[in-house]
Amino acid sequence: MLALSLGLHWALLQTVAWTGMLITFSRGASFKEAVAKTFDGKHPCTLCKAIKQGRAAEKKQEQQQSKPVLKLDAGLVWQDTQFNFDCGRDPIVAGNFLMLVRSEQPPKPRPRGILPGNNAGA
User: Fold this and answer.
1) What are the tens digits of pLDDT across the range 26-81?
2) In whole angstroms, how far apart are CA 54 and each of 16, 58, 62, 103?
3) The pTM is what?
4) DSSP per residue over the chain, as a string?
5) How do the domains of the chain map onto residue ranges?
6) CA-CA-CA-CA torsion sign (47, 50, 54, 56)
């Protein structure tokens, strides 16, 4: 489906047509002349003509489908949003957090040997 939507089928058909033209033209002339006749656009084969008509029909169909037929396109509608931060709740009062200050000194001597791997007690 992707190949068809990208138009790769036309490229494949055109490649087949050019290959056939090269073979046909190289029978009666040199390869250089066959390449020139194949790609000059003056000597199209029946498959090349059919490809050209198919591409033109496809383009015409795409253009007809892309034309809006009295189609209303509303687009994006901007709506101004207002935020109301006054929600009627009681304000949060900051607590009276006093840091307690220790006035006593740590015990002496400090406890040792409690943690594993501590060699201070040895």
Assistant:
1) 998 899 999 998 889 898 899 999 989 988 888 888 887 776 656 666 666 677 77
2) 15, 6, 12, 96
3) 0.47
4) -HHHHHTHHHHHHHHHHHHHHHHHHHHHS-HHHHHHHHHSSSS--HHHHHHHHHHHHHHHHHHHHHS-SS------------------PPPPPPP--PPPPP-SPPPSSPP-S-STT-GGG-
5) 2-66
6) positive
